[in-house]
């Protein structure tokens, strides 16, 4: 059974930092690009970031570029999101998601999310 | 432009057909997807690459495309289909992903 389990969310003050983690199991991890997608309370989905299988390419949404950094550790089947200079508008549930290469190209696998709240 | 537009809500009676549109200039030249999200749950894909249905998704879900508009059709809507639905596209280099604003489907 494929599982993506996020952790690291919580309450942080504006301007602060937080590091999210995503533990993957039950899938050939290096066959997936890994992503973070977020959802503000009561609002829609927003793609945040992507990392390819060997970490040579990372991509970011316009609203987080320059503040967030995605990374992965293939030996541990882990994905991370380092979030700096956090703002109130970064508040939301952060999902880890995977896209398998040469398959549907959809976000086939999702975690249950971790809540990040940016507030003073 | 990667801005996508969806109607905020669609209401339909059980057994009827719900159609949800998603429009945007980028849709004509990209691969497009649809996700269902029930309250308190993570999204799940119901249509991939415009028209394909993943295994396990009921046949009443179908996708179509015409120019800069893609459409999710739910034929014979059931109560369990009440959820938010999001379209999603990606550029040709797989470096930029966009979700539509979402459509809330209400089963009357």
Describe the structure.
The complex is a heterodimer of chains A (120) and B (108). Chain A has 120 residues and is mostly beta strands. Helices cover 0% and strands 51% of the residues of chain A. Chain A has no helices and eleven strands. In chain A, strands 2, 4, 5, 6, 9, 10 and 11 form a seven-stranded mixed beta sheet that branches. A four-stranded antiparallel beta sheet of chain A has the order 1-3-8-7, with no helix packed on it. The model of chain A has no long low-confidence stretch (mean pLDDT 97). Chain B is an all-beta fold and 108 residues long. Chain B is built from no helices and nine strands. Chain B has strands at residues 9-12, 18-23, 31-37, 44-47, 61-66, 69-74, 83-90, 97-99, 103-107. In chain B, strands 1, 3, 4, 7, 8 and 9 form a six-stranded mixed beta sheet that branches. Chain B has a three-stranded antiparallel beta sheet with strand order 2-6-5, with no helix packed on it. The N and C termini of chain B lie far apart (35 Å). The model of chain B has no long low-confidence stretch (mean pLDDT 95). Chains A and B meet through β4 and β5 of A and β3, β7 and β8 of B.
Give the gist of this structure.
Chain A has 120 residues and is an all-beta fold. Chain A has strands at residues 3-7, 10-12, 18-25, 32-39, 46-51, 58-60, 68-73, 78-83, 92-100, 109-110, 114-118. In chain A, strands 2, 4, 5, 6, 9, 10 and 11 form a seven-stranded mixed sheet that branches. A four-stranded antiparallel sheet of chain A has the order 1-3-8-7, with no helix packed on it.
Radius of gyration of chain B: 13 Å
**Average of pLDDT of chain B:** 95
The whole-angstrom Rg of chain A is 14 Å
Oligomer: heterodimer
Mean of residue pLDDT values of chain A: 97
Which percent range fits the helix content of chain A?
under 10%
User: What structural class should be given to the helix and strand makeup of chain B?
Assistant: mainly beta
How many beta-strand runs of chain A?
Answer: 11
Report the sheet with the most strands of chain B, covering strand number, pairing sense and barrel closure: 6 strands, mixed
Class of secondary structure makeup of chain A: mainly beta
**Could you spell the SSE succession of chain B in H and E letters?**
EEEEEEEEE
How many individual helices of chain A? 0
């Amino acid at each position: 059974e494929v599982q993506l389990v996020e952790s690291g969310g919580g309450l942080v003050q504006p301007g602060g930092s937080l590091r999210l983690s995503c533990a993957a199991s039950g899938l050939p991890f290096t066959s997936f690009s890994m992503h973070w997608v977020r959802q503000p309370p009561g609002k829609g989905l927003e793609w945040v970031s992507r990392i390819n299988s060997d970490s040579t390419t990372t991509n970011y949404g316009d609203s987080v570029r320059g503040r967030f950094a995605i990374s992965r550790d293939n030996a541990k089947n882990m994905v991370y999101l380092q979030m700096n200079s956090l703002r109130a508008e970064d508040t939301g549930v952060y999902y880890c998601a995977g896209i398998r290469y040469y398959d549907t190209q959809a976000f086939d696998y999702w975690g249950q999310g971790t809540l990040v709240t940016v507030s003073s | 432009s990667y801005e996508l537009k969806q109607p905020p809500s669609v209401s339909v009676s059980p057994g009827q057909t719900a159609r949800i549109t998603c429009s945007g200039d980028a849709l004509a030249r990209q691969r497009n997807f649809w996700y269902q999200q029930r309250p308190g749950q993570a999204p799940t894909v119901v249509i991939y690459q415009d028209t394909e249905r993943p295994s396990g998704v009921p046949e009443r879900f179908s996708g179509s495309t015409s120019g800069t508009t893609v459409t999710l059709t739910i034929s014979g809507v059931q109560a369990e289909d009440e959820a938010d639905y999001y379209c999603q596209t990606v550029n040709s280099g797989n470096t930029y992903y966009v979700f539509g604003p979402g459509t809330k489907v209400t089963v009357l």
